[in-house]
DNA sequence: TATTGTTATACTCTATAACTATA
DNA sequence: TATAGTTATAGAGTATAACAATA
């Protein structure tokens, strides 16, 4: 309780509010983009994850910060639509690897493109401003 | 399809990725903060909305971009916990106004404070940097 | 014994459609 | 007739607990 009990510096407060606004807008448009492909937000997130690299169910759950049992159903639905498939793991027969199919890779790619929405508001910023924004976001996230 | 089919300028691409990372982190920590108060994310969002101003069910739905029928259940649960109450509207007897109780206002306030998490990563930025960030976010969101 | 994925269960959120009471 | 809120329903996400197969 005590550590963050600082006086609510108005500047920081406003930045937090603005980030909240960006978060809301991003999420709304993300859900909408997913919906256009007949996917829920959670399905789209898993698909995006797998389009980067195949992964065991457990790891997907860890990355999405949810219970592994939930991933079963999400991958079931993606698999039923032919976007993802389950493969055995060479080294450990308990493990199942979820991997995107060619069609899944294509949908993930289209999804990424329709996610351009986030690019839209950025078009009002100059290259210099975007560079500043990038560096600030990196530092905010603790990226070196 | 055509309008946003621009070459994927790497700088903009990275900024979009970083914003996505911020969105994910914000959401996770928001859900966690709500959970500490025994609330779901949706309940916390409605409570925050009502802590600013009482509102008819319909308006809550519009602000949360969901169907009005969903608000019934969410307000039901908040009301069952004594955080919110339904009041008649003076001018239109069809309307029900949802309003926070004193306890609801208190929880909303605590929630806002525990939401300080978002302030944490900002502490690494100087005042000047936070000002730049604020102005960039404002422009991104189309705030004048 | 411990771990991986799954199933079963219960709760919540969500959209859709039909209902009621007002307007 | 149109609108505000609700109810009923179905699908999806979520956590928890228990299970089979494998380590």
What are the salient characteristics of this protein?
Arc Repressor Mutant, subunit A, mainly alpha, 3 strands, 144 residues, homodimer, DNA-binding, 60% helix, 3-stranded antiparallel beta sheet
Would you give an account of this structure?
Two copies of one chain form a homodimer. Chain A has 144 residues and is mostly helical. Chain A has a single domain, classed as Arc Repressor Mutant, subunit A (Orthogonal Bundle), CATH 1.10.10.10. In chain A, 60% of the residues lie in helices and 8% in strands. Chain A contains six helices and three strands, in the order H-H-E-H-H-E-E-H-H. The first copy, chain A, has helices at residues 10-36, 41-52, 57-64, 68-80, 102-114, 127-140; strands at 55-56, 84-88, 96-100. A three-stranded antiparallel beta sheet of chain A has the order 1-3-2. Chain A is elongated and about 55 Å long. The first copy, chain A, starts with 9 loop residues before the first helix and ends with a helix. At the A-B interface, helix 1 and helix 6 of A face helix 1 and helix 6 of B. The structure holds a DNA duplex (23 and 23 nucleotides).
């Amino acid at each position: 309780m005590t550590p963050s009990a600082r006086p609510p510096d108005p500047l920081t407060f406003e930045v937090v509010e603005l980030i909240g606004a960006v978060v809301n807008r991003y999420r709304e448009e993300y859900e909408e983009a997913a919906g256009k492909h007949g996917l829920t937000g959670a399905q789209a997130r898993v698909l995006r994850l797998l389009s980067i690299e195949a992964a065991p169910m457990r790891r997907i759950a860890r990355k999405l910060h949810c219970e592994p049992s939930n991933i079963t159903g999400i991958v079931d639905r993606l698999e039923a639509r032919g976007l993802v498939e389950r493969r055995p793991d060479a080294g450990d027969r308990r493990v199942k690897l979820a991997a995107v199919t060619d069609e899944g890779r294509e949908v993930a790619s289209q999804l990424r493109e329709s996610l351009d929405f986030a690019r839209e508001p950025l078009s009002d910023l100059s290259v210099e401003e975007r560079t500043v924004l990038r560096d600030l976001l990196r530092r905010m996230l603790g990226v070196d």
